[in-house]
Amino acid sequence: MAYLVQSHAVHTLYNDHQGWLHSWLRNRLGNTWDAADLVHDTFVKVLLKEEWTVIREPRAYLTTIAHGLMVNSLRRKDLERAYLDAIAHLPEDEYPSPETRTLVLETLIDIDTMLEGLAPKVRRAFLLLQLEGLRHGEIADRLKVSISSVRQYIAKAIQHCVLRHHE
Amino acid sequence: MSNDSLHAEALKAAALWFVQLSSGEATAEQRAEWQTWHQQNPAHEYAWQQIEKVTRKFSAPGISASIGLATLERPAPLSRRKTLPHMEAIFALAGLSQAG
Lengths: 167, 100
What we know:
The complex is a heterodimer.
Chain A: H1 2-29, H2 32-48, H3 58-87, H4 98-115, H5 120-132, H6 136-143, H7 147-166
Chain B: H1 8-21, H2 28-40, H3 42-58, H4 65-72, H5 77-82, H6 84-99
Helix pairs in contact in B: 1-3, 2-3
């Protein structure tokens, strides 16, 4: 059974490299618990991979996966902090429930991931349109650019988001 | 999902329609033209659906303009990291002025 072979291989990979990967992550994250979590997540991801290839450079392979997970985890923490700051001043009866907070945070992470890679002005123009519902002329004033630039930014942003979301 | 059914040309056209319709200044005539374009070809319809999926995210409950901007326009952690050497220079100067 392919699965047994695969899980056996992952087990070997784990025994040989988990200590090294943990140090690699701890050096970057500065704490041992987050590093341990990401070591775990990295091996789960390897185990769940559908296509199984011969890994010639196991450490390069593991660090590529671990790096992606680390970036996502930092993005999540960063967004969560910004979100909690943004709602901190809300009165108690308007403060979102834990369930709502989780849902909103997931949506924010989705949007942030979609927007990644856009130039700052393009990103800002698109956010002002989508979140504040500003007219193109108002966006142009805020960004101190021409209306035709705003139109180009919006066209660029929406295509970028569709392609990222569609992946 | 594959990109098989998403045609680059259709996406480009859809993006231009999105710009036009989001301007707040689209005329009834332009809306009718959009309708024609949308119905002309399944690829157009598909590309437009993808745009709607993206824009729907922004109107999810709990995402107000102020919360959205405060979180999505936060300073990037990477750019913060880039300012580190600068901060170190400031600390060094602060140390110097204290010493002096």
